Amino acid sequence: MSSKTGIVIVGGGVAGLALATRLGATVGKQGEARITLIDRGFSHVWKPMLHCFAAGTASNENDRISFMGQASAHNFEFWPGDVVGLDREKREITLGPLQASDGQVVLESRTIGYDVLIFAIGSCANDFRTPGVAEHCLFIDNLVEANGFNEKFRMELLRAYATGSELNIAIVGGGATGTQLAAELHKAIEIVELHAFGASPPKMRITLLEAGPRIVPAFPESVSDAAQKELERIGVTVRTSAMVSGADAEGFSLKDGTHVPATLRVWAAGVKAPDVTKAYGGLSLGRSGQIVVHPNLQSIDDERIFAMGDCSYIADEPLPPTAQVARQQAHHLARHIPALLRSGKPVPSCVFRNKGAIVALGDYNGWGTLPGGGVFGGGWMRGLAARLGHVMLYRQHQIELYGFWRGMMSLLADLVDAVARPSARLD
């Protein structure tokens, strides 16, 4: 295998960064391949924590992983940019110009060659072309959007404190993201109240709108019922079978003719691949824009291109868009791509093994499901087991990327930070 073999990974999420780190420890460290990670941002966050960034209950500095730092420590390269084109014949991707915050062009459009190309660009919310959503709603699909929502939330909260007015927030989408965001925003209010010099906190009304008959539909009905009761206990209004027909500057219109007023409007419903997949060299796409792949994650159109995680679609066995699926697929490619490069050995099919799922509603409650369908959490301990399980998944992710000792140091730093700093973002 030539030392010039190029592996390009597009997307630094759960799957992309894990794959770059693992390949860097093998073919990268041994000088057998040049591994390049491409991402539009400069840092990685664990996507299941985005609702915490949005609410301001997570510390950005502690929970972000620098792509440049990770690359220098794990034998791969990182370049920022958006992939805007793919030439499969030349085996090149095109990155759009990189601009600074003031609009100045820092890097012109560039091309990067590859021998193996792997897409791991994740997913985003699907507004189903609902009128007004793109213009009037906020999204939390990435760290930039989560931070943008948090800034607006803090400003509206300040306005409500100063004027004594009510702060109305409506969230569309009763999946894990929407339900956890609703709980986390309530937690943020409780924390901010401790720093308000004794002033009475403003009334905050949170409404969760779900088009289906129950929230968190990926979980058993017993969990859905318990989660709804818990949200209602802390003051969240949950409306199921509430189909949104439009959004405006004042709130959401529902198909039953009612209007839900909201100062802040969040869209967390539906899942689709980013629209940029349409510019990927004519690769076959699924109904929601995902790249269609074989069970071994190889594109059905090009043997040198792979896709994993939320942006991939296995027609024979569609998988849920979860971090668990993305992580297992990254590990599969990390095990088998070295043999593909060294001897041309085909990548075998990736078999997903369901290890269960967890939904944690802030510090209030949490539930988990086991592979056999059993449910744990809830009860008199208020879901402590499930909430600890959610934390352990995050720490496992950190240890995977940092290594054991550095991961443990990160945990210690977070514990110290929790004592030394406010437990909510106030700046």
What does this structure look like?
The chain has helices at residues 14-28, 50-55, 60-63, 67-73, 133-136, 143-163, 176-193, 221-233, 323-343, 384-402, 404-420; strands at residues 6-10, 34-39, 43-44, 65-66, 77-80, 83-87, 92-95, 98-99, 105-107, 110-113, 116-119, 167-172, 204-209, 237-239, 244-248, 251-254, 259-261, 264-267, 291-293, 305-307, 312-314, 357-361, 365-369, 375-377. The chain has 427 residues and is an alpha/beta fold. The strands form eight sheets. It has a five-stranded parallel sheet with strand order 5-2-1-11-20. Strands 14-13-12-18 form a four-stranded parallel sheet.
Number of helices: 11
The chain-level mean pLDDT equals 88
Main sheet overview: 5 strands, parallel
Biggest sheet strand line-up: 5-2-1-11-20
Q: Would you count the extended β strands for me?
A: 24
Structural class computed from helices and strand pairing: alpha/beta
Determine the fraction of residues in helical runs and give it as a percent range: 25-40%
Unreliable segments of 5+ consecutive residues:
none
